GGDEF domain-containing protein
Amino acid sequence: MNLVELAARSARPSPATAVLRTRARRPAPQDATDTSLLRSARQVVDALAGISGLETWYLGRVDGETLLPLAVSAEARSVVVGRRVPWSATPCRRMVNGLGPAVVPVLAAVPNYARAPYATALGMTAYAGLPLRDADGRLLGVLAGWSSRPDPVVPPGLEPVVRAFSELLTQTLAAEVRDDDAQRARERESVRRQAADKVTSLSSRTGWGAVLRQEDRRSAERGVPVALLVVDVGLVRSAARLQRATQSIVRALPGALVSRLNARQFGAVLPDVEPDAVPGTAQEVTAALRAEGFCATSAWATSGEADDLGGVWLLAEQRLYTARRDGRNP
């Protein structure tokens, strides 16, 4: 059964559809770059481009203030996989915020969409899109399409088809997240064993490099936001105090991967975290360390600010250096 047929069935649930939508999926191989999500997304955007009257479709992941296209239709115009665009400039953001309908055959009829800078720049004449949200309602991304042709013909009944596709992609993404969490746990344990710091039992600077490479691959495949937090604990004169600092950082960052980078500096990978949540996390870590008597300073950077996590780390360290020099803390 192809995706168009599956989407049609999903729009009108049946027992057969329920089985298809809940079937377990085998984990992707560790070194796979062409994930189930990306394969499905490419099929979806190409199918929609063929039936919707809109020649450009994409699946995009919202990463802070940017939108990262993960898959685009074969005839897509002015949108490229991996090339971020400002989220605030898109009609998709306005759609997510409830400022217009899901399907707009004539874009000029909805000024909120027509005035979006991205819509103006691309000469959009028609638009359709829906958000992808997880079970808790958190925005994961958008499935959207548009036309720049003078008189596009959008068929009636498009919205339930787009909705069915968006639900299918959301389910695929959720399944990949579960598999990926398990894979991440295995990778972290492997790094910890192979590159452990003898004093803190955390991964060392060597292990940190391996973790950044793993998270870079994961972020590229899924478009998930990642933040890097670097923490300076000040001068530490004993192994016991260093272990105490380690315990404080690990307690304040449940779910993060913490590494010891040098004699007084720690790094933490914060996966799947929205950028606006990072400052509060940094403050919690700094406060916990100061309560233990450490002269702590922290800084951070997020995946939307550089091309890869190596660049994100460099930016975070530059900010940490500036904060220490100027005597500033979050």
